[in-house]
TrEMBL record:
Keyword Transmembrane: yes
One GO term of the biological process aspect: lipid catabolic process
Source organism (scientific name): Nitrosotalea sinensis
Protein name: Putative transmembrane protein
Residue span(s) of domain PNPLA: 15-214
Length: 359
């Protein structure tokens, strides 16, 4: 029987970034801590604003992703809302300002154009300004650089309702690929056409694209860092309809990767059993008929045992905490809020990552 040469086992450090509008500034702080801790990322994945952050990390122009990412977010911040306002008032004021007047570095309302017709447009905002902002920080040619982390971003096909995944290992990225992940229809943002596909925000299917990373890289085991922008736990019950919608939104968008991790553990146990059975059969004297049957199974065994499913060896969740429950907190681009989110993400990640990779 021919000897099976197993592929060398490997491990990857993976950062998974969620969508969440202006809350993505928290992920900037998380990444600053990752860089300060000296953690080398092999894969960075994201959807929506997480895809934008991931792209800057993987394809930044300066070679200092933490610096470029922070500059991007400070550039996205608006300085109209007074920083001295109480937090709840600042959230309300800034989000209402963004809804009415947009953000010149990200999106602009179409109703400011005289030719706009509400009844004949499927969207309300133009996000082409975001493309121009991204181009200040991103060099798409650098995505293929072997020294950069692999980039995986997700979007949703408008017509067939399936996930569209872009992977720097196989795809040549442009700004359209990134914008396609950020077209959130519930906020009136358009789809983006990439090739023959019309694509919306990846959060419509999955706001934490760990499963997509596993599918893209099924051989290597993973040590995973997830920036969770939407709290899973909330002890106090909603008191108003707005708070109820806010809590429901958090539940829909929060990290739901536990099932993927459980399946990883189950698969690893199955594979161990299959390997033991295979090893026993190799050392048993078989007649010619059974030897031939075993040889016919070798190819399938090789796929299962040697190109095995990913095992999640470690997972760190860095979770944003909420002091108040405001439905449109993800549209608060005030400078005070952006700086606070970066600061909180950095502090939370520094403590959470203290022992990352040491198990």
């Amino acid at each position: 029987m021919p000897e099976i040469k197993k592929e060398k086992s490997c491990e990857e450090n993976v950062l998974v970034l969620q969508g969440g509008g202006s809350l993505g500034a928290y992920e900037c702080g998380v990444y600053k801590a990752i860089q300060e801790c000296g953690i080398k990322l092999d894969v960075v994945a994201g959807t929506s604003i997480g895809a934008i952050n991931a792209t800057i990390i993987a394809a930044n122009k300066s070679g200092n992703p933490a610096k470029d990412l922070e500059e991007f977010w400070l550039n996205m911040a608006e300085g109209v809302t007074p920083s001295y306002l109480p937090e709840k008032m600042r959230e309300l004021s800034s989000s209402m300002y963004a809804a009415m007047w947009g953000n010149p570095n990200a999106f602009l309302p179409l109703w400011l154009k005289p030719s706009f017709n509400f009844s004949s447009s499927p969207y309300l905002y133009d996000i082409s300004p975001l493309k121009k902002t991204l181009e200040k920080y991103v060099d798409y040619a650098k995505i293929k650089d072997a020294s950069r982390p692999r980039l995986v971003i997700t979007s949703t096909d408008v017509q067939n309702g399936k996930s569209s995944i872009f992977d720097s290992k196989y795809d040549t990225f442009t700004s359209d690929h990134v914008l396609a992940s950020a077209g959130y229809p519930f906020y009136g943002i358009s789809w983006t056409k990439v090739g023959s596909r019309y694509l919306w925000d990846g959060t419509l299917l999955n706001n934490t694209p760990l499963r997509e990373v596993i599918d893209a890289s099924p051989v290597c085991d993973k040590r995973v860092i997830i920036a969770n922008l939407f709290p899973r736990q909330q002890e106090d019950l909603p008191r108003t309809m707005s708070e109820a919608w806010h809590r429901a939104r958090d539940i829909m968008h929060t990290d739901k990767t536990d099932q993927a991790i459980r399946m990883s553990k189950i698969i690893s146990r199955y594979l161990l059993v299959i390997k033991k059975m295979h090893d026993i059969l190799e050392n048993v004297s078989l007649d010619e008929t059974n030897k031939k049957k075993l040889e016919e199974l070798e190819s399938e065994y090789h796929k299962l045992a040697c190109q095995r499913g990913t095992i999640i060896k470690e997972i760190i969740r860095i979770e944003r905490k909420e002091e108040s429950h405001y439905l449109f907190e993800d549209a608060d681009f005030s400078l005070g809020t952006i700086k606070k989110l970066i600061r909180n993400g950095h502090q939370d990640a520094k403590s959470a990552l203290e022992n990352f990779g040491k198990k």
